[in-house]
Amino acid sequence: MKIVLDLNVILDVVENRLPGVEFSSAVISVVGREKIPAFIPSHGVTTIHYHTAKHLTKAKAGETIDWLLDQFDVLSEDRQLFLRARRQPMSDFEDAVVASLAEVNGCNYIVTRNIKDFKNSPVEAVTPEEFLQILEELN
């Protein structure tokens, strides 16, 4: 099993955002413990740095990026992937990029709190809570 983590899941944990932090933290913990391949989109690295520096501190942003790069593999976008994303029947381009990355890289799920924008995704989107339930059912 391979998953892509949407940025909102990471930001829930980094910024301790309620109510999402509980299940998002649990997903990140189980991914590390069970050695489940988990990916983040490359555009997410800069977005998370910007967001964390703006809402917390620049030092925290740097620590967060170090942690991200230590914990997760990064999936890169290129021209072909952006063209693929433009063809996705999805209303949000950034989400279409995430969906295209997941599809091209053979991921089973996109873990996100934003299910509605992934309605037409080629890869199933699940909430952190749903992902934990899927793992529980597999074990």
Largest sheet: 5 strands, parallel
Average pLDDT: 95
| Poorly predicted runs of 5 or more residues | none
User: Structural class, from helix and strand content?
Assistant: alpha/beta
| Rounded radius of gyration (Å) | 14 Å
List the secondary-structure elements in sequence, H or E.
EHHEHHEHHEEH
The oligomeric state of the chains shown is: single chain
**Count of DSSP E strands?**
5
* End-to-end Cα distance: 13 Å
Structure characteristics:
7 helices, 11% strand, 5-stranded parallel β-sheet, alpha/beta, 139 residues
Care to give the gist of this entry?
By secondary structure, this protein is α/β, with parallel strands linked by helices. The chain has helices at residues 7-14, 21-34, 42-55, 58-71, 79-87, 93-104, 128-138; strands at 3-5, 38-41, 73-75, 109-111, 125-126.
Structural notes for this entry:
The protein has 7 helices and 5 strands; from the N terminus they run βααβααβααββα. It is α/β, with parallel strands linked by helices and 139 residues long. The chain has a 5-stranded parallel sheet with strand order 3-2-1-4-5, sandwiched between helices.
Question: What are the SSEs and their pairings?
Answer:
Layout: E1 3-5, H1 7-14, H2 21-34, E2 38-41, H3 42-55, H4 58-71, E3 73-75, H5 79-87, H6 93-104, E4 109-111, E5 125-126, H7 128-138
Parallel strand pairs: 1-2, 1-4, 2-3, 4-5
Helix pairs in contact: 1-2, 1-3, 2-7, 3-4, 5-6
